[in-house]
């Protein structure tokens, strides 16, 4: 029988370069436990300067006494992003990609006495490993569990893309009937070996049992009736499927998976259906990091996230932008979330053919390792990939990935998340089964109303295409507050107005197959500096430490939950300098009652959002209470003589570009491109230019004007980094002719700035 031993403690870690592979326990290294990342702090503190390089982990392996012919495997749930594994100085494995499981058979490398495991992990940029560029921190480390796995020579396969060695698929063929397809993949089977497939219901009652002769692909099909269906968050009922490998009267190996019987389809005019029932998918996206922990999470932290997502009332999660922990996929199965799972083919394609092979490898790992998760209904092949330019090679790579997905798993749908600037008629929108767009109208560009204008236009132009929203959101920092909020003030009030509008327009468009808020939680992005908060993206419904639920958390509760709730908005805007205020309330109740200092004032009909206007504040403190459907909420506002200055964010104008920088410039004028070495030019890297205030002003203004989007300095660090500006700008989502005309003028202005 297989046994697992989790290698949690007594690891030694260093960032120091090693001249040779360690073959003994080191001295002077840091003692750490797994999961571990070396970017837990510097990956979230801003400055785009977190450590990216080669680090080493060393541990002594204690191997118990084992039966003869036992195979010993090392199993890494993830190590970011390139990894080499050595046992007693000999290489056991290497792995390219930071988010998927991989294993190594180390049986032949072990000795009878001290065995030293040494692991090199590297999160530096590599042209052949995705992601190439993205708006989040690329944490380095062994940040998920490492295990020793002991199995007999004949066992369920452990060598195929990190998969389980058992797949369970089902197709609903009648009323509560399903055709079940079982595959057990056996290594080194002997002639008389058998595989028993047994299926149990949630009460552990045996439902079916099938015996097959053990083969490399041991296959069985059976028809089950009177099934209890897995019905999303309403009823996430799971069966257990066990595969037992036997020889004579001995069990050699055994594995179990859980399975939910369900069917789904999507209608372009009606939306998403689960088991024949219309179920509009409304939910969130999620990154896998915590404040002060980076991405080195335990199952307990994953459970915190899952419970918060369930509490807000979501029924779907987009697990962006990479393969997530098996712990979290398990929780999604248990809680009934419909999952979009994707690979980190994001923002920029590298033309190196080896990079495309890495993309294929990561897609295979995603599907093979997660095939048995019933919560997963769609495989995502890319996200905003045209940020880094759209080329014929990119289109062919996307088609290749989509064909791979359909070949590996025809039972699920393929999808991609498009950048808002990609034209509706672009051929990329015809590649995958279904489609979603990332839209930030009302934050980065345009107004709230541009969202529904765009959506309705696309739906009218392409009525047979299934469309969703893969990202929408805006920054909200809970210390900032405004009476007249506007885009760019980072106030909790503007974030609330934005989401009130989005929730309302989404609610009346059920044909949107799925909508995913960006993001459930604030998350680490060391290159960002937004609203005076460095090192993170602040678009979450909940803060990065999971301690504070922003007002918009309760807005979506009002839309998505039936458990009675009521919430007073802007409680953190506690000091008020006006005679009267408006009290905004979120509730899923039909009527909300208002009380001031304990006295009933009035009640109002509510449609998720209700506003009690012109509420007079007395000197000092005024207590506000609201009641609805048996629940209530209370807060206090203080009347002050002067506005409280810390509530208002004062933007550094140099951090954000303007969109009219070229208005008074004749770009048709011919200009000589000079490159005097003592002055800046377009041939310098973006990072070099951004280090100089005058040069960075030119960059953010020029690119904001070319794209029509108010680009921030910190975003250029993410998108361009060490690339020469002239090369990086050529890949911006703007007309090539405009970029070419503007480049000589940009260079002319840069050549006026001396290098220190």
Give me the Rg, rounded: 28 Å
Query: Ranges with pLDDT <50 over ≥5 residues?
Result: none
Gap between N and C termini:
68 Å
Strand order, largest beta sheet: 29-28-27-26-25-24-23-30
Q: Structural class from helices and strands?
A: alpha+beta
Structure description:
This protein is α+β, with helices and mostly antiparallel strands and 756 residues long. Helices cover 19% and strands 32% of the residues. A hairpin with a 2-residue loop joins strand 36 and strand 37. Helix 6 runs parallel beside helix 7. The radius of gyration is 28 Å and the shape is globular. The termini are far apart.
Topology:
Layout: E1 3-6, E2 11-14, E3 30-32, E4 54-61, E5 70-76, E6 82-87, E7 90-96, E8 102-105, E9 115-122, E10 146-152, E11 155-156, E12 166-174, E13 177-184, E14 186-187, E15 194-200, E16 206-213, E17 218-224, E18 239-247, E19 250-259, E20 264-267, E21 271-274, E22 277-278, E23 281-286, H1 299-312, E24 316-319, H2 326-335, E25 338-342, H3 353-370, E26 376-383, H4 392-408, E27 413-419, E28 435-438, H5 450-461, E29 467-471, H6 492-507, E30 514-517, E31 523-530, E32 533-537, H7 551-560, E33 566-568, E34 575-576, E35 580-587, E36 591-596, E37 599-605, E38 608-616, E39 620-628, E40 631-639, H8 686-690, H9 693-707, H10 713-719, H11 725-729, H12 736-750
Parallel strand pairs: 23-24, 23-30, 24-25, 25-26, 26-27, 27-28, 28-29, 34-40
Antiparallel strand pairs: 1-10, 2-3, 2-4, 4-9, 5-8, 5-10, 6-7, 6-9, 11-14, 12-13, 13-17, 15-16, 15-18, 18-19, 20-21, 21-22, 31-32, 33-35, 35-38, 36-37, 36-39, 39-40
């Amino acid at each position: 029988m297989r046994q697992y031993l989790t290698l949690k403690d007594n690891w030694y870690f260093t960032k120091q370069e090693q001249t040779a592979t360690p073959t003994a326990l080191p001295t002077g290294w840091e003692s750490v436990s797994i999961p571990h990342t070396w970017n837990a702090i510097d990956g979230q503190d801003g400055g785009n300067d977190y450590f990216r390089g080669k680090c080493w982990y060393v541990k002594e392996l204690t191997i118990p006494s084992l039966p003869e012919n036992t195979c010993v495997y090392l199993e890494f749930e993830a190590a970011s992003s390139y990894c080499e594994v050595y046992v007693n100085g000999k290489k056991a494995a290497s792995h390219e990609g930071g988010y998927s499981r991989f294993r190594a058979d180390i049986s032949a490398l072990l000795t009878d006495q001290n065995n030293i495991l040494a692991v090199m992990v590297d999160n530096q940029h590599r042209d052949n490993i995705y992601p190439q560029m993205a708006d989040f921190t690329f944490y380095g480390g062994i940040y998920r569990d490492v295990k020793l796995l002991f199995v007999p020579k004949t066992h369920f396969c452990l060598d195929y893309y990190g998969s389980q060695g058992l797949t369970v698929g089902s197709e609903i063929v009648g009323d509560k009937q399903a055709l079940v397809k079982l595959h057990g993949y056996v290594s080194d089977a002997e002639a008389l070996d058998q595989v028993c497939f047994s299926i149990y219901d949630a009460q552990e009652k045996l439902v079916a049992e099938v015996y097959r002769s053990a083969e490399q692909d041991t296959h069985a099909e059976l028809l089950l009736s009177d099934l209890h269906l897995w019905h999303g968050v309403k009823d996430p009922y799971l069966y257990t499927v066990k595969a037992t490998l036997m020889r004579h009267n001995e069990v050699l190996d055994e594995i179990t998976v859980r399975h939910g019987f369900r069917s789904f389809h999507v209608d372009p005019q009606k939306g998403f259906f689960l088991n024949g029932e219309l179920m509009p998918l409304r939910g969130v996206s999620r990154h896998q990091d915590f404040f002060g922990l980076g991405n080195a999470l335990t199952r307990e932290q994953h459970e915190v996230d899952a419970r918060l997502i369930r509490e807000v009332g979501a029924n779907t999660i987009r697990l962006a932008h990479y393969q997530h922990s098996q712990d979290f996929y398990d929780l999604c199965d248990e809680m009934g979330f419909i999952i979009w799972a994707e690979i980190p083919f994001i923002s920029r394609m590298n033309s190196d053919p080896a990079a495309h092979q890495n993309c294929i490898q990561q897609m295979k790992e995603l599907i093979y390792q997660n095939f048995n998760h019933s919560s997963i209904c769609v495989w995502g092949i890319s996200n905003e990939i045209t940020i880094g330019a759209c080329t014929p090679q990119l289109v062919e790579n996307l088609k290749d990935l989509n064909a791979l997905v359909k070949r590996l798993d025809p039972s699920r749908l393929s999808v991609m998340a498009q950048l808002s600037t990609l034209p509706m008629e672009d051929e990329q929108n015809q590649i995958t089964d279904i489609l979603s767009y990332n839209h930030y109208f009302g934050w980065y560009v345009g107004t709230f109303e541009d969202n529904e204008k765009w959506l309705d236009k696309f739906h009218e132009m392409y009525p047979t295409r299934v469309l969703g929203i893969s990202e929408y959101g805006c920054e909200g920092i809970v210390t900032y507050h405004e009476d007249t909020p506007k885009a760019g003030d980072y106030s909790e009030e503007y974030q609330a107005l934005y989401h009130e509008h989005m929730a309302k327009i989404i609610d009346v468009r059920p044909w949107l197959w799925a909508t995913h808020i960006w993001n459930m939680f604030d998350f680490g992005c060391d290159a960002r500096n937004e609203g005076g908060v460095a090192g993170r993206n602040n678009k979450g419904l909940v803060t990065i430490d999971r301690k504070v639920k922003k007002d918009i958390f309760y807005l979506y509760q009002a839309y998505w939950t039936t458990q009675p709730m009521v919430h007073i908005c802007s409680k953190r805007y506690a000091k008020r300098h006006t005679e009267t205020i408006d009290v905004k309330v979120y509730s899923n109740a039909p009527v909300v009652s208002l009380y001031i200092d304990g006295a009933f004032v009035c009640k109002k009909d509510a449609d998720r959002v209700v506003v009690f206007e012109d509420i007079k504040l007395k000197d000092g403190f005024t207590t506000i209470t609201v009641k609805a459907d048996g629940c209530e909420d209370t807060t206090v506002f203080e009347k002050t003589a002067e506005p409280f200055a810390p509530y208002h964010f004062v933007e550094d104008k140099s951090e954000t570009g303007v969109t009219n920088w070229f208005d008074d410039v004749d770009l048709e004028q011919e200009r000589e491109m000079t490159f005097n070495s003592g002055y800046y030019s377009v041939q310098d890297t973006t990072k070099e230019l951004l280090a100089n205030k005058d040069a960075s002003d030119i960059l953010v203004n020029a690119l904001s004007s070319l794209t029509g989007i108010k680009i921030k300095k910190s975003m250029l660090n993410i998108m361009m980094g060490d690339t020469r500006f002239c090369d990086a700008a050529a890949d911006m989502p703007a007309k090539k002719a405009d970029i070419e005309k503007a480049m000589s003028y940009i260079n002319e202005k840069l050549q006026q700035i001396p290098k220190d």
